[in-house]
Amino acid sequence: MLRTSPHPPAESPRRRRAWPTALAALGLLLATLYSGAATPGGATKPTELDAAPQAAQVVRVAEFLAECPYSHRLPDDPIVFPGLPGASHMHSFFGSRVTDAHTDVTDLLGSSSTCSPAVDTSSYWVPTMYRGDQPVEPTGTTFYYLGEGVRDDIIQRIRPFPQGLRIVAGNAKATGVGDPTSVARWSCLHHGEVNPSKDFVNCPAGSMLESYLDFPQCWNGKDLDSPDHKSHMSYPVNGACPAGHPVPVPKLRQVLRYPVSGSTQGLRLASGPGYTMHGDFFNAWPQNELARRVTDCINVIVKCGADGRPS
To answer: What residues does the DUF1996 domain cover (predicted)?
Structure first.
């Protein structure tokens, strides 16, 4: 790009005499640049100006994420059975490495984490998957924080989770695929021809079994938990948060990929069949980091990576 000084120097007599020649040369140069050199058939050869890269465009999706690999396995649940080690079915934990039956938010804050970004010391856990008696842990573990599910004007009002918020999504005691409390779905990686189901699906060789689970995204604005670990939260209705749960927060989407394909015979969760899949979330994000991501990614509807920057 040609740049001009805001205060060009005064011309000398010699430069004034050369001005017509210079104008002619400049005109020839500009004609060449903008018309391109002729090629056979009347086509024009692209110039460097034609090939200049365009400015990068942000993706208009309200999203940031955390990649949190498997950490450890325990028959503990600090939300449902706090202070009671061994009282739960087996759980696989992601994120904070310290989670056990006695964990509170103080334990999580600043703890070592498997997450990228490491500042996310939240704890996430699900019932352990088994093939027969052999545990099968996911090799892909992504936790998306999304603005989808509500209107754009509500996305602009989404607030960060309060520190210490606890949520359970899904139902460990679901009775079948028709049970409305069973909200997780199973599918196959890169094989959309396999219809998703609330129970395990047979995936082609070379694929992986995926579990998707969306957490509720409307909070009552008061409680960090509730007796059933669900009533303080709600799913949106018609793109808005209901009156009893007026505070929109990010939608947490848990996506787990298991190294499983082919027959699902012998496959089970510690809680039972595939339709009993459920997830627990114990928020321990540093408040400033979570607030920045909500402001810079979700409220303005921009797709961000694990660093909370536009990707």
So the answer is: 77-285
